# Entry
Amino acid sequence: MAIYPKCRLIQISMISSSLVGTFPWQFMFQDNKILKNMYAMYSKLMLGYFTLFVFSQQLELLILITDEEVMRNAIFANISVTPIYTITLAKQLIMMLNSSFRATIKQIIDTEKCKSPIEDDEVFEIELRIVQRSNKLVKYYGLMMFVLGTLYCVKPILMTPNIVSSGNTTKAIGFFPLSSWFPFDEQKHYPYAYMWQTLSLLQGTMYVTTTDILMFNLIVFTAVQLRKLKHLLKNFVHYKERFMTLYNIVDDEQAAKITLIYFIRRHKEIIEYVRLFNESMEIVMVFDFLQSSLHIASVLPEVLMSEISLMVVLTVASFLGSMLFRLSLYYYHANNVIILSAELSYSIYESNWFDQTPKVKQMILIFMLRTQEPLTLRIGGFAVMSIESLIAILKATYSYVMLMI
# Structure
């Protein structure tokens, strides 16, 4: 009995995300309806709990902002986590409810399942190299987030509690891993409150990590298909001969037309995939883009406004490293999609297209014109995911830091 669909690119993502129910249940346990329904229930319960915890964080932020005594350090501590949890929650709701998003995952699975006989070992090696590299990046990111989550859990235990005097009595105020609202006196029941937050932090860290890994894999899939198509176009003559051999085609012009039509169909499939990705994710990526700079900048006041210690420095360094690495996973690889899609016309130009018949030359020229406009993963209707967008986030982060200082 297969638990997961067979797909190398998203294998790590499927296994890790299914542990906390973030992988869409529609693709799990295809041969067992009972287990599939049980996983769907588990996924919805985990999402429901995560929703309640994110609401408690937002409620705590509202209380801190409206309090007469504004505690800036507490507000910044809340903002450093709450926005990314909120965005992750929005992505999870889209993954669960949006059919366009599920169509992108289905296309990834179907593409690997239905291998074209035209693809040879060289094409397979291109895909394998990219998959291996993306798996390494995914493992690095997972390790960084594990270290960050561990530091957040351990830091409150190692910090000295604040001693508050009220008349003849003194009270120790303990710290917590996250900033959230409690429906009870958290200091009076500190062990239970700490355990609750620790469990919520572990779930939240897993939610953020697995959601980002899946999103990263969806972006990488586009790059994989574009690199393979580039190779096919550049070696047009070679793969035309493969068509002639595999399908016993004698006429050279007919084989060239069939080969080119096959390449055009693959390009259209990539375009459709990007359209589905944008349709399902472009709105939530606007908020991800807008919150990223504030999210990163909000952790720096912890260094400026707290007593410097090794634990604080390690936590802040781990936080900045993890979040910057997260942004590079999104925007650097989305920028590769732009570059690779723009290079398709150059790839077929490098083949011996000028040796083809006039009819085939005309088809190739039309294809070159159609591939002039690069494919882009959009941030709403006003920007695209690219290196320029990453630089804009870093500039905004710097501005927020200067404002806070």
In short: The mean pLDDT is 87. The first helix runs from residue 11 to 19. The chain is about 75% helix and 5% strand. The beta strands are 162-166, 169-173, 378-379, 383-384.
